[in-house]
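Journal club prep — side note

Before the paper discussion, L.F. wants everyone to see what a predicted structure for a comparable chain looks like in token form. Sequence:
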Amino acid sequence: MTEPPQTAEPTTPEPEATAPVPDGRAPQTPAAVRRRAVLAGTAVSALLILAIVLGSRLLRDFDSALLPYAVATVFLAFGVAYRYTVWISAPGARRLFRQGWRSFFSAANFRKAPTALPKMIATYLGFQKFLGARSHARWAAHQLLFWGCILAALITFPLTWGWFTFTSGTGDGPGYEMRIWGFKVLGFDSLNILGWLMFHGLDIAAVLVIAGASYFLWRRMKDRGAITGQRFAYDLIPLIALVVISVTGLLLTFSSIFLHGGGYEFLAILHMVSVVFTLIYIPFGKFFHIVQRPAAVGMQLFKYTSRRKDEELQTCRRCHEPIDTPDYVENLRGTMKDLKLDFDEWAEYCPRCKRVLRGNAYLTHVKKGFK
């Protein structure tokens, strides 16, 4: 059996003034990265403002009461573009980003399986099957949270931007017309099932989100592993914000139907504040993984397209169990070299053997000091 190479114990590299850049390009200074991120955020925000103006037919369909929500989405667009630009400026993220797009446009992708990417999007992004391997309960709760947020976003954003409008010839229904960018899409009766679903889509989304978020809040109060590593601002604030948004949204419906509008103004302000806060928080908190997750699909596609017919997977240097494709392992080593980590050969070991070797190193070099 081949013994692992004798290397110095891994140490955290000292921070550098510039970020290393692969492919022989000049290093990027933090100031240069920030400037590019600001430009990207400004450009995306300007495009969104232009889309709002044009999509609302020069603001004719724009509801001024929804202005705070629209302004928050502009800040959201800026923050996402800024943070994403900074993120992909890091060597590891840039390599993953580049390999994902290269695999998507590669001949191997279209030749081997044109449906590979749609399947990965459906299973990895949509149904998140990888979560089911950890816990069926967590998977179900995450699905409720995910689809509730997707439904709410698909309804809220177009309405906020003035892209969707619901008009009635009589002023108060029950017949309504749904228009997108000024064009009539369908007419419906607000008293039938379709009309009820159209007008209560956000209420349905709120119920889904409350169920999913409540499970994760319960888990973070009961599960010892979750309690140990959780942080209030990073782990709990997002869940609390989603619950507050959903509960206040449902209370608005309750007020209008059962209380004849009692307390509606206060609830509307509380709901608006919670939504605006959450939208601005998204790029700089835990919710940013929503933007990062598609990059993981690109890496899955890279692993798929790099696996050649009848090609054997690279095996662990210690136990000889399969790890992954040689191209994927080499890409991981390249990322570690970009980061100037002097233990890139450890990418050729499986996770179990890495833990064993780490434990042996601890017993050999650390624990003996207590004799």
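L.F.'s comment for the group: Residues 232-258 form the longest helix (27 residues). Keep this in mind when we get to the figures.
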